[in-house]
Amino acid sequence: MITVDAPISFLVGGAIALACRSATGDKIRDRDRTLVHGLILQSVVLTPVILFFMLRFPDWEWNYMLDARRFFLEDNPSLGIMLVVILVAVMNLSYLLGFYLTEKMIKKDQRLQPISLLVLVSISMLVVMLSMSDQALHIGTLEEYRSGTAPLIFFSPQFLIAQSIAGVLIALGIIAIIRAAHNSEA
Protein backbone atom coordinates (compact mmCIF):
# COMPACT_ATOMS: atom_id res chain seq x y z
CA MET A 1 0.00 0.00 0.00
CA ILE A 2 1.28 3.40 -0.96
CA THR A 3 1.20 4.54 2.66
CA VAL A 4 3.77 1.95 3.77
CA ASP A 5 5.93 1.24 0.69
CA ALA A 6 8.55 3.93 1.40
CA PRO A 7 8.73 3.12 5.14
CA ILE A 8 9.29 -0.56 4.28
CA SER A 9 12.21 0.45 2.05
CA PHE A 10 13.54 2.70 4.84
CA LEU A 11 13.38 -0.22 7.28
CA VAL A 12 15.20 -2.54 4.87
CA GLY A 13 18.04 -0.03 4.49
CA GLY A 14 18.26 0.64 8.20
CA ALA A 15 18.03 -3.03 9.17
CA ILE A 16 20.80 -4.01 6.76
CA ALA A 17 23.08 -1.27 8.07
CA LEU A 18 22.35 -2.19 11.69
CA ALA A 19 22.79 -5.94 11.16
CA CYS A 20 26.13 -5.32 9.43
CA ARG A 21 27.59 -3.18 12.21
CA SER A 22 31.22 -4.10 12.82
CA ALA A 23 32.45 -5.89 15.90
CA THR A 24 33.83 -2.58 17.18
CA GLY A 25 30.35 -1.10 16.71
CA ASP A 26 31.46 2.12 15.01
CA LYS A 27 31.14 1.27 11.30
CA ILE A 28 29.38 -0.98 8.83
CA ARG A 29 31.23 -4.08 7.70
CA ASP A 30 32.25 -3.95 4.04
CA ARG A 31 30.21 -0.75 3.84
CA ASP A 32 30.20 0.03 0.11
CA ARG A 33 29.46 -3.54 -0.95
CA THR A 34 26.78 -3.86 1.74
CA LEU A 35 25.13 -0.62 0.60
CA VAL A 36 25.17 -1.68 -3.06
CA HIS A 37 23.95 -5.22 -2.36
CA GLY A 38 21.07 -3.80 -0.36
CA LEU A 39 20.21 -1.39 -3.16
CA ILE A 40 20.28 -4.29 -5.61
CA LEU A 41 17.91 -6.23 -3.33
CA GLN A 42 15.69 -3.16 -3.15
CA SER A 43 15.73 -2.76 -6.95
CA VAL A 44 15.48 -6.41 -7.97
CA VAL A 45 13.05 -7.76 -5.36
CA LEU A 46 11.23 -5.13 -3.32
CA THR A 47 10.52 -2.55 -6.04
CA PRO A 48 9.16 -5.09 -8.58
CA VAL A 49 6.85 -6.56 -5.93
CA ILE A 50 5.50 -3.12 -5.10
CA LEU A 51 5.08 -2.39 -8.81
CA PHE A 52 3.23 -5.70 -9.25
CA PHE A 53 0.77 -4.66 -6.55
CA MET A 54 0.41 -1.19 -8.12
CA LEU A 55 -0.42 -2.66 -11.51
CA ARG A 56 -2.46 -5.66 -10.38
CA PHE A 57 -4.30 -4.09 -7.43
CA PRO A 58 -4.00 -0.31 -8.01
CA ASP A 59 -7.09 0.72 -6.03
CA TRP A 60 -5.92 -1.33 -3.02
CA GLU A 61 -2.37 0.00 -3.38
CA TRP A 62 -3.80 3.54 -3.17
CA ASN A 63 -5.88 2.64 -0.08
CA TYR A 64 -9.11 3.08 -2.06
CA MET A 65 -8.62 6.86 -1.98
CA LEU A 66 -9.42 7.07 -5.69
CA ASP A 67 -10.16 4.90 -8.70
CA ALA A 68 -6.44 4.43 -9.32
CA ARG A 69 -6.88 1.85 -12.08
CA ARG A 70 -8.96 4.25 -14.15
CA PHE A 71 -7.02 7.40 -13.26
CA PHE A 72 -3.45 6.12 -13.66
CA LEU A 73 -3.76 3.18 -16.03
CA GLU A 74 -6.71 3.89 -18.29
CA ASP A 75 -7.37 7.65 -18.47
CA ASN A 76 -3.83 8.99 -17.96
CA PRO A 77 -1.31 6.28 -18.89
CA SER A 78 1.55 8.78 -19.30
CA LEU A 79 0.81 10.10 -15.81
CA GLY A 80 0.83 6.51 -14.58
CA ILE A 81 4.27 5.90 -16.10
CA MET A 82 5.60 9.12 -14.59
CA LEU A 83 4.15 8.14 -11.22
CA VAL A 84 5.84 4.74 -11.37
CA VAL A 85 9.20 6.39 -12.09
CA ILE A 86 8.72 8.80 -9.19
CA LEU A 87 7.67 6.04 -6.80
CA VAL A 88 10.63 3.84 -7.75
CA ALA A 89 12.93 6.80 -7.04
CA VAL A 90 11.19 7.48 -3.72
CA MET A 91 11.47 3.84 -2.65
CA ASN A 92 15.18 3.71 -3.51
CA LEU A 93 15.79 7.03 -1.77
CA SER A 94 13.92 5.70 1.27
CA TYR A 95 16.23 2.68 1.33
CA LEU A 96 19.27 4.96 1.12
CA LEU A 97 17.91 7.27 3.83
CA GLY A 98 17.33 4.33 6.18
CA PHE A 99 20.85 3.06 5.52
CA TYR A 100 22.53 6.46 5.89
CA LEU A 101 20.69 7.55 9.04
CA THR A 102 21.45 4.24 10.70
CA GLU A 103 25.07 4.44 9.55
CA LYS A 104 25.38 7.96 10.97
CA MET A 105 24.25 6.71 14.37
CA ILE A 106 26.58 3.72 14.17
CA LYS A 107 29.54 5.99 13.38
CA LYS A 108 28.74 8.01 16.51
CA ASP A 109 28.85 4.68 18.39
CA GLN A 110 25.26 5.08 19.47
CA ARG A 111 24.06 1.64 20.48
CA LEU A 112 20.34 2.12 21.07
CA GLN A 113 19.47 5.00 18.74
CA PRO A 114 19.50 2.97 15.49
CA ILE A 115 17.26 0.34 17.07
CA SER A 116 14.98 3.07 18.45
CA LEU A 117 14.75 4.67 15.00
CA LEU A 118 13.73 1.40 13.34
CA VAL A 119 11.24 0.61 16.11
CA LEU A 120 9.71 4.10 15.79
CA VAL A 121 9.30 3.72 12.01
CA SER A 122 7.83 0.23 12.51
CA ILE A 123 5.34 1.47 15.11
CA SER A 124 4.36 4.39 12.85
CA MET A 125 3.73 1.94 10.02
CA LEU A 126 1.68 -0.27 12.31
CA VAL A 127 -0.44 2.70 13.41
CA VAL A 128 -1.08 3.64 9.77
CA MET A 129 -1.95 0.04 8.89
CA LEU A 130 -4.29 -0.30 11.87
CA SER A 131 -6.00 2.98 11.03
CA MET A 132 -6.58 1.65 7.52
CA SER A 133 -7.10 -1.99 8.44
CA ASP A 134 -10.34 -2.31 6.52
CA GLN A 135 -8.66 -1.04 3.34
CA ALA A 136 -5.58 -3.17 3.98
CA LEU A 137 -7.55 -6.38 4.52
CA HIS A 138 -9.82 -6.13 1.46
CA ILE A 139 -8.44 -6.36 -2.04
CA GLY A 140 -10.30 -5.43 -5.17
CA THR A 141 -11.47 -2.44 -7.14
CA LEU A 142 -12.71 0.80 -5.63
CA GLU A 143 -16.24 -0.15 -6.68
CA GLU A 144 -15.96 -3.55 -4.96
CA TYR A 145 -14.56 -1.96 -1.82
CA ARG A 146 -17.28 0.70 -1.62
CA SER A 147 -20.01 -1.86 -2.19
CA GLY A 148 -18.58 -4.20 0.44
CA THR A 149 -17.85 -7.00 -2.03
CA ALA A 150 -14.03 -6.74 -2.11
CA PRO A 151 -12.71 -10.09 -0.89
CA LEU A 152 -10.40 -10.42 2.07
CA ILE A 153 -6.74 -10.61 1.08
CA PHE A 154 -6.60 -14.07 2.64
CA PHE A 155 -8.77 -15.35 -0.21
CA SER A 156 -6.73 -13.86 -3.04
CA PRO A 157 -4.29 -16.50 -4.30
CA GLN A 158 -2.43 -13.94 -6.46
CA PHE A 159 -1.92 -11.67 -3.48
CA LEU A 160 -0.85 -14.46 -1.16
CA ILE A 161 1.55 -15.99 -3.67
CA ALA A 162 3.15 -12.62 -4.52
CA GLN A 163 3.42 -11.68 -0.84
CA SER A 164 4.92 -15.07 0.06
CA ILE A 165 7.46 -14.98 -2.77
CA ALA A 166 8.40 -11.42 -1.87
CA GLY A 167 8.79 -12.23 1.82
CA VAL A 168 11.00 -15.24 1.15
CA LEU A 169 13.16 -13.42 -1.43
CA ILE A 170 13.59 -10.35 0.76
CA ALA A 171 14.47 -12.45 3.81
CA LEU A 172 16.96 -14.57 1.84
CA GLY A 173 18.46 -11.45 0.27
CA ILE A 174 18.91 -9.73 3.63
CA ILE A 175 20.44 -12.88 5.13
CA ALA A 176 22.87 -13.17 2.19
CA ILE A 177 23.90 -9.52 2.51
CA ILE A 178 24.47 -9.85 6.25
CA ARG A 179 26.45 -13.08 5.85
CA ALA A 180 28.63 -11.55 3.11
CA ALA A 181 29.33 -8.49 5.25
CA HIS A 182 30.20 -10.59 8.31
CA ASN A 183 32.37 -12.95 6.27
CA SER A 184 34.28 -10.02 4.77
CA GLU A 185 35.56 -9.11 8.21
CA ALA A 186 36.66 -12.65 9.06
Q: Number of DSSP strands?
A: 0
Looking at the structure, what is the overall shape? elongated
- Major β-sheet annotation: none
Query: Number of DSSP helices?
Result: 9
Alpha carbon gap, first and last residue: 40 Å
Relative helix content: over 70%
The share of residues in extended strands comes to under 5%
Regions with little confidence, pLDDT below 50 for 5+ residues:
none
| Whole-number tally of structural domains | 1
Protein described:
This protein has 186 residues and is mainly alpha-helical. It has one domain. It has nine helices and no strands. It has helices at 2-19, 31-56, 58-61, 68-75, 77-107, 113-131, 133-137, 142-147, 157-185. Helix 1 packs parallel to helix 5.
List keywords for this structure.
9 helices, single chain, mainly alpha, 186 residues, elongated
Summarize the entry for a quick read.
The protein has one domain. The protein is built from nine helices and no strands.
